[in-house]
Amino acid sequence: MPRLVVFADRDRAGSWTTLAHALRTLGLADARVVTLADDPALAWPHDIAEVFDGGQELGHLVRTADLLVFVDVLPDELGLFDGMLAARARDGRTGVLVQCDHAPTPLRAHAIARAVGREGWSLATTRPPCTTLAAAGARFLAPFVPWWRAPLLPLAAGTRLRLRRNERIVYASSTTPLREQPLLEGWIDRAEQVAAVAPGVRVEIMTARGHAAVAQRRRRAHLVLAGAGIGRTALEAMAQGVPTVAQLDDDERAAWTKLAGTPPPVVAPDALEQAITELVPTAEPNLALRRWVGRAADPHQWLRACEAWLARRPHARAA
Considering the domain 3-144+299-311 in this protein, what is its CATH number? Predict the structure, then answer.
């Protein structure tokens, strides 16, 4: 079985761990995830049982990997094992994938494109790629979102009738202070202005809370404010059947339309006030939104992509 090792700053919403588990369960790859910012030691594995071995197991995994995946980081930026990791990425015997989860600055995009072009690495983005990354051959894939697992399932039909029947909830969440999210903060201000005069409208905000708590509370909302682009927040909200406000430019809309086969069913920011006033307190989850996410974020796309990246490795690993 080929070996795949993922290096990511954080395993956001457990997506990489879920994908790695799927790859292992299906017998496609011995996939392991290393998170860099979640541990004081900075580089201990996320799903390797023993981490108090001086890095011996992780070092062995790196030396025997068939595919190394670097999420929002380049190999040279990780000084693990006295440069052995960076050397392994360039030895011509290991496949390398660089993935951009966050939209890079223009300067950063050029640095990534140069490195990928020089070394012949694969490149993927979970946001529609900018011109620089597109020219470098970036493949656009939706973030790996396990939308079939709780708490990303829609609220059970009939549940709202048992809750507060006249309440309409507009929901927003952020992992950082709102002052660092001016677009989202502006939408929240607009929603609160509507709530001040519209009966039964309540704006709920969660900041710096765990993913499970955020997802569980969001599924009871009537409208979610997601921010710029379609990221994990928007995909998860729509998977829960909750209408979602997201700002898309023409290129982003076209990229998502191509990926899913139909335009993204998000609420335009200009229609925010109207969308709030038209909310129905007892409305059931919109399963059409969930079906769109099922097409856009089809997990089989990731499985096929991983197989293709593994197949590109220069030489098979010795037994």
Answer: 3.40.50
CATH 3.90.850.10 for domain 160-296, yes or no, is no
Distances (CA, A) of 310 to 30, 122, 258: 11, 10, 25
CA dihedral for 309, 310, 315, 317, sign (positive or negative): positive
Tens of pLDDT, residue by residue, the chain (319 residues): 889 999 988 777 778 888 888 888 888 888 888 887 755 444 445 555 445 555 677 888 888 999 999 999 999 888 777 888 899 999 888 899 999 988 899 999 999 999 999 999 999 999 999 899 999 999 999 988 888 888 899 988 877 766 666 789 999 998 888 888 999 999 999 999 999 999 999 999 998 888 888 999 999 999 999 999 999 999 999 999 999 999 999 999 999 999 999 999 999 999 999 999 999 988 899 999 999 999 999 988 888 888 888 887 655 444 3
Residue extents of the structural domains in the chain? 3-144+299-311, 160-296
Domains 3-144+299-311 and 160-296 share a fold: yes
Amino acid at site 227: G
Q: Whole-structure pTM over 0.70, yes or no?
A: yes
For tokens 């070394």, what's the residue? 119
8 Å CB contact between 138 and 123: yes
- Helical residues (DSSP H) of 160-248, grouped into ranges: 182-197, 211-218, 232-239
3 state SS of 205: strand
Type and span of the H or E element at 118: helix 106-119
Q: With beta carbons less than 8 A apart as the criterion, state whether 25 and 47 touch.
A: no
Going from the C-alpha of 129 to that of each of 113, 170, 236, 256, 312, the distances in angstroms are 11, 30, 21, 11, 22
Q: Is 226 helix (H, G, I), strand (E, B) or coil?
A: strand
